[in-house]
Amino acid sequence: MVPNNPVRIIEAFVDELDLGALGFAGVVPEVTGRPSYHPATLLKIYIYGYLNRVPSSRRLERETQRNLELMWLTGRLMPDFKTIADFRRDNGPAIRAACAQFIGLCRQLNLFTQAVVALDGSKFKAVNNRDKNFTVTKVAKRIEQVEAGIARYLAALDRADRQGGAETEAKTARLKQKIAGLRRAMQSLKEMQQQVEAAPDQQISLTDPDARSMATSGKGTGIVGYNVQMAVEAEHHLIVAHEVTNVGNDRTQLLAMGRQAQDVMGCAEITVLADRGYYNGDEVLACEHSGVLPYVPKTQTSGNSNRGLFTGHDFVYDAEHDRYTCPAGQHLTKGKLRSDRQDTIDHYRNLTACPSCSLKPQCTPDKHRRVKRWEHEDVLDRMQARLERMPEAMLIRRQTVEHPFGTIKAWMGSTHFLMKTLEKVKTGMSLHVLAYNLKRMINILGVRPLLRALAV
């Protein structure tokens, strides 16, 4: 094997791991019986496979029998696909820990000199067809479709009875069979409806029970899958933290992913760049004084701009006097709390100036314009000020974090995860992340310098 072949890095990395401390089973062979394959051999096979877009255990079995690089890496050992698949299934936490070990190596090489990470989430398909996923809305829609089908066939049966003729009997029998089939389907849907309504999140997936229906950007293009979160450092574009969840949005991931990246990089304070999907006042507030400095654009939820009305940005807050100044130059002051309002939201208005204001047609169709302010709005204002001082933040975020997602999905062949349930999917994703980071390190340092670093 030539000295600069990347397969040598896989061997050096795995050989340096303390597999027993990481939790791999079978490190010490049993006293009796035939010894099993050492976990180092199977881990090398998987890292090589994911690095070369061969994640399937059956395909890896074939590769160990014909691929010269893999023969050299395993010492010509050729485990069957069941042994390879069982290793990935049974050693999930240890495989994820090995992925974290490689990030620790990157930290030792002082590659994390900039405490800036970009955060994003992307939907990955699960081993679960959309037809095998049920929600309250989906079940109701399918029941409606079956009812319409039964009504259509009953009408056709009635017409066939009135027409008569030689073919009527055969046609009637076929229609009765179809009606009976639809009624059985209706009974199954009624039972599924009860199960869905009793489920904690009112959703059931039959093939992969942990997979969930998730909306995507295109209309009608939702998938059943998982939401993969990644934090990518901005200098070398290495994935420093990742997580797999079956929650379909990113609203509650800002602090958790920020802290995870902070711990991995060993920084007292870390800058986190994220898109509007992460905008959540409670999450931003929780980041305060935690060492996580978020840069998240505010979500535009108001429809006033589309209606040609002033938006909240047109009202300037005066912290000293605790009031807003409207586009007409009038001051909106805080009103008294009402029992039907949230205790954490203040309402500002000017009951005197609004009715006679010349700009009222451009401001509000109501009697008075009200501006809402959260009691911790100053935290969001400080974040907005940071964004204004760093106008390139979202460009850096996009250039940093979207490339790893696109690369890993291309390696997967734009298909689904090979494993089922959340814990096993996390293992598969950790292997993808480890392969991506290995390839990034080879491109950054080269094979021989990386080998020397692993030998230290």
From TrEMBL:
The keyword Coiled coil applies. InterPro entries: IS1182_transpos, Tnp_DDE_dom, Transposase_InsH_N. The keyword Coiled coil applies. It comes from the Bacteria. This is Transposase. Residues 3-89 form the Transposase InsH N-terminal domain. It holds the Pfam family DDE_Tnp_1_6. Residues 325-442 form the Transposase DDE domain. Keywords: Coiled coil. Residues 143-199 form a coiled coil.
